[in-house]
Amino acid sequence: MSQTEKYYDNLKEAVEKIAGRKLYSHSDFTELSESIYQKTQTILSPTTLKRFWGYLKNESPNPQKRSLNVLAVFAGHNNWEDFCNYLDNKNDYSSEYVTRNQLHSFLMQPGETIKIKWYPNRTVTLRHEGDTDMFTVMQQENSKLEQGMTLHCEAFIKGEPLLLRNIKGGSIKEPCDYLCGKIMGIDYEIVK
Fold first, then answer.
1. How many domains does the chain have?
2. pLDDT > 70? residue 123
3. Residue 47: is it exposed, middle or buried by C-beta count within 10 angstroms (0-12/13-18/19+)?
4. Residue 99 scores a pLDDT above 70
5. Any domain includes 96
6. The pTM is what?
7. Do residues 35 and 73 touch, judged by C-beta distance below 8 A?
8. Of 100 and 176, the one with more pLDDT
9. Which of 33, 56, 89 delimits the end of a domain?
């Protein structure tokens, strides 16, 4: 396997991690195309994605640089070159410095909201309460967290699990902690 093919495989893996699943069917590629557009405001057709993933057997999987740039941005990097540099400098240790795709709670404004997503199809919207790391659950889909619960969170890091601490309210009897995105990490966006 060539170095370029290794980069391609790593990019596919990074995109699937953000997407929250492996890509196997036509609908997977259609949903990914929509997610890419929502996150990057750039269109990559399902056919282009299928070709890159090798889903179209009779077509060359060699993508254009534009497609690689868009996929790298979707995976949390500045562009394709940045992604390759990241891989070249990445070590295989179980710990590393976090330098990108993070948001510290103390930088948020009171009343600002953040939408967190994780596999499979979990979504929670939190409102910052002005304390450095306190939030209230405003909405949730397919999550055990309940509207009105309060919790603490110091930072959000894309692609990593998220620990929510000291959760109170709702149907829980005593404060507890909750881990989101244990398998594939989380994604987030500030809601305007």
1. 2
2. yes
3. middle
4. no
5. no
6. 0.54
7. no
8. 176
9. 89
